[in-house]
Structure formats: C-alpha cells, structure tokens
C-alpha cells in the first residue's frame, strides 16, 4: 500500500510540475509573439477613436472665489486687507461691493439731475 501512495504522490508532483511548466511556456510564447491582450486592444481602439486632444474641464469657482474676482475687477483690495495675511471675508467683500454699487448709482443720479436741469435762461426783451 505504501508503494501505491508513493507512486501516486510522485505522479501528482510530476503533473503539477508539468502544469506549471506548461503555463510558463504558454505565457512566454504569448509574450514573445505579442498576442494583443484585452488592455492592448482597448488602448488601440481608444487611440483610434480620439483624434482631437481633450481639453481639461474647468472646475466651478466657489462663491468666495467669484467675489474675489469681482473685487479684483472693481479695484477693491481684498488680499491682506487687515494686515498679517488677513483677507476680506465673504460678508466684508459683499458689503464693499454694495457700497461701490451705491456710490456709482448716486453718481449717475447726480449726473442725470445736472443734465436734465434747464440750461436756457429766459432772455429779457429790451
């Protein structure tokens, strides 16, 4: 009986070594002949379909970043406004932009009043 088990274990070892050797041979054969795999096929197909470069998508600006851009365009100093790298906060930027808007509106009203006032004075007949 022990002879049978030793022959069986020998056969299992031979078959397992044969399986490993055949798998390695198949792997090297495919690699040497460059059989296209799934990933290679996918990348070649993707490269064939994409003809123009894809531009990166722009991210949306946060509300604070939008306010900072508006302040920059309006000429309001928002960066280091308080000193020691203390920038304007959201509420402060909003109030500064609103004050600027009010000042512009009041200037426009003053201009409108001066333009609409009559410039012709009545001439006296002599």
Outline the structure in words.
The chain has two domains: 2-40; 63-114, no CATH class. The termini are far apart. By secondary structure, it is mainly α. The longest helix is centred in the N-terminal third of the chain and has 32 residues, at 2-33. The radius of gyration is 41 Å and the shape is rod-shaped. The protein has helices spanning 2-33, 38-49, 63-74, 90-116. Helix 3 crosses helix 4.
Tell me, rounded to a whole number, the average pLDDT.
77
What is the number of helices?
4
- Amino- and carboxy-terminal Cα gap: 151 Å
Q: How much strand?
A: under 5%
Shape: rod-shaped
Total number of beta strands = 0
Largest sheet: none
Poorly predicted tracts of residues: none
Rg to the nearest angstrom? 41 Å
- How do the SSEs run, as a string of H and E? HHHH
Structural class: mainly alpha
In percent, how helical is the residue content? 55-70%
Write down the domain tally: 2
How does the SSE layout of this entry go?
Blueprint lengths: L1 H32 L4 H12 L13 H12 L15 H27 L10
Helix pairs in contact: 3-4
What is this entry, summarized?
The chain is mainly alpha-helical and 126 residues long. It has two domains: 2-40; 63-114, no CATH class. It is 66% helix and 0% strand.
Name some characteristics of this structure.
126 residues, 4 helices, 2 domains, mainly alpha, rod-shaped
